[in-house]
Write a structure and sequence with these properties.
About 35% of the residues lie in helices and about 20% in strands. The protein has helices at about 25-40, 85-90, 105-120, 185-235, and strands spanning about 45-50, 55, 65, 70-75, 85, 95-100, 120-125, 135-145, 145-150, 155-160, 165-170, 170-175. It has a 6-stranded mixed beta sheet with strand order 1-4-6-7-8-9, with helices on both faces. A 3-stranded mixed beta sheet has the order 3-2-5.
Length: about 240
């Protein structure tokens, strides 16, 4: 019996042994991006992941990259332990990196080379502290086999693959739908907004009912006053 391990038997590690993020802020933004796109593409055939090992060369345990968040269109959204491009027959369409002190060099120098080689359509970097990246929001788009910087329009970067625009609002990353201009939020934020709207509608309905009641009572008082005045006139008072 042969002791040679074939490529089909290779076990690809699920962790690179590095911490997920340096600070709570960076981790929070990684998860927020994940949840924003999960909400945007709910019930659609789109795979979204965060801090997952992406292997891009079959048979090589060293050929992997770990995006902070990535989106793969036209792809089964089921859970995975790793993302292996040769099995998926897909590569990430869009990658997002939340740049931190320890990752800034890798995000700016190393990862773009890998993403370009893989064929990632668009690549965005965001520094929530505005300390390690200038400007703190940058984007790159694949053009003729090369990731080239995306020019801002009115301070916004357009992500063509996902149909959204990205910009900063007081250092916070904002993502809006290109066609509708609607801000993209997480499921929890959407539910909270829906509850707030429902409460506002309820308060507005209560206010309207109170106004209607006051108007009716005022009209009834006016009728009684007129009736009393008429009685006095008829009585010769």
């Amino acid at each position: 019996m042969s002791s040679v391990t074939t490529q089909n038997e290779i076990e690809y590690p699920e962790s690179d042994g590095k911490p997920m993020g340096e600070t709570d802020l960076h981790r929070d933004w990684m998860f927020r991006l994940l949840e924003i796109f999960r909400q945007r593409y709910r019930d659609q055939r789109v795979y979204i992941a965060s801090d997952l090992l992406v292997y891009y060369e079959e048979g090589s345990l060293s050929k992997f990259v770990v995006p902070d968040c990535f989106v793969v269109l036209d792809c089964d959204p089921g859970r995975r332990r790793t993302f292996q491009t040769w099995k998926e027959k897909r590569v990430p369409d869009v990658v997002f990196e939340v740049t931190s002190r320890g990752a800034s060099s890798t995000d700016i120098v190393d990862k773009p080379v890998i993403y370009e080689r893989m064929g990632v359509r668009e690549y965005f970097l965001y520094d929530p502290t505005a300390s390690y990246l200038e400007p703190p929001l940058q984007g790159y788009r694949m053009t003729n086999g090369t990731l080239r910087e995306i020019a801002k329009t009115d301070g916004r970067l357009r992500c063509e693959a996902l149909g959204v625009e990205l910009f900063l609002r007081e250092d916070d990353l904002v993502i809006v739908d290109t066609e509708t201009g609607v801000e993209q939020v997480t499921k929890a934020e959407a539910e909270a907004h829906a509850r707030e709207q429902a409460q506002q509608k309820q308060l507005e309905a209560q206010r309207m009912r109170a106004q209607e009641l006051e108007a009716r009572l005022s009209a009834e008082r006016r009728v009684r006053e007129l009736e009393e005045k008429l009685r006095r006139l008829e009585g010769g008072e």
